[in-house]
Amino acid sequence: MENPAPVIGLDGRRHEARCSGFPGSDPRFSFWTRRGSVRKLLVYFEGGGACWDGQSCSFPRVGLPPEVPQFFDTQVPPGTDPARMDGLLRTNHPSNPVRDWDMVYIPYCTGDVHIGSASRSYTSVANPFVGLAAGQTLNIQHRGYDNFMVVLDWIRRQVRAPHQVLVAGSSAGGYGAAVNAHWIGMLYPGAQMHVLADSAQGVLPAAFDTSLPGRRSWNPQIAPWVFGPNAAAAPSGDLIRRAARSDPFGRYAQITPHVDPVQIGFYAAMAGGYGAGSCPARPEVEWHNRMSSELQGRAASQRNFRYYVAAGPFHMLLTDPRFYAEQSGGQTVASWVGDLLAGRLRGPAYEAQSNGLGHGQGGHWSNQACPGCLANWACPAP
């Protein structure tokens, strides 16, 4: 649906859909839908980087040479068509566990991981590749949350009440899925909920989440009744665990490679301004060790959370052909997602949590990791 009208959202506020407004970009917002043959719903949040200050917002992703920094998508790219995408969106693949579901595809063009509701002015740095002079004012619309509320209003009016819901996203979309899924759960309280974040590990400097400029640039809409007091400052890496804790009958999961050049690149870019970790000269070491520790900690503390760690390096699996071929974690990702959706949690403790919609039935959905991929790396001596 192209350029949808403003709505009063499920939160009771007025929302208007728009993209970033970066100079020369198309500010119009669109989203895509597909009718399935079963009463099940996939809501997918697209990825596409982030921007939060004059430096990052001066370097959009517009097909620049690889040596040029590129931080965020400024518009819905012309020719976007989820029907031609692969992985979870490929409806003619026999191993796709959601091939016959209703689908809603939410593009990303606001630089705020789908959680922002703000208009910000930044002072640019020079970017000759896009004709941007140093000192130019950039008025950026961080309206990812507003866009989601507009899409959610369409879902509310058009989608028959599903028995199952999968809220998924890749990269920036993984954060959008984790933070916004509860609204879809509120819309369909009788549905069996699943949340899946791909390549969105949340390994960021702690100061980024509390700083302006930083995550506060977006006026992040992070619900305190789901994510706890002072939710707007909650660590990015802890958001999905908190969401899982608030929804004990839902199932929450993350997929990540053990080496992800994109996630490592964003961590390194942020570390310069917000503080590096224990291995400042080697951001890949710091990112990997935190990824491993935090994933295992989430799985240990939340029994409705699981992870799949694949052998990297790469970025994003859910809309890639590797969704059906990658099995370094012990089974294909497609099969593992199928287990997630089938509700095959292990042990009698889960059966006691059953809500009559398949929770806790049987036992195959388990944590998966490529051999040695969760082992800590040593930080080289300076």
Explain the overall architecture.
- The chain has one domain (7-369): Rossmann fold, CATH 3.40.50.
- By secondary structure, it is of the alpha/beta class.
- It is globular and about 55 Å long.
- The chain has ten helices and twelve strands.
- The strands form three sheets. An eight-stranded mixed β-sheet has the order 3-5-4-8-9-10-11-12, with helices on both faces.
- α2 packs parallel to α3 and α6 (261-274) crosses α7.
- 26% of the residues lie in helices and 15% in strands.
**CATH class designation:** Alpha Beta
Task: Say how many strands there are.
Answer: 12
Q: Strand-residue fraction?
A: 15-25%
- Could you tell me the CATH topology label: Rossmann fold
Q: Under the CATH scheme, which architecture would be assigned? A: 3-Layer(aba) Sandwich
Instruction: Tally the helices.
Output: 10
What class, by secondary structure content? alpha/beta
Topology order in helix (H) and strand (E) letters? EEEEHEEEHEHEHHEHHEHHHE
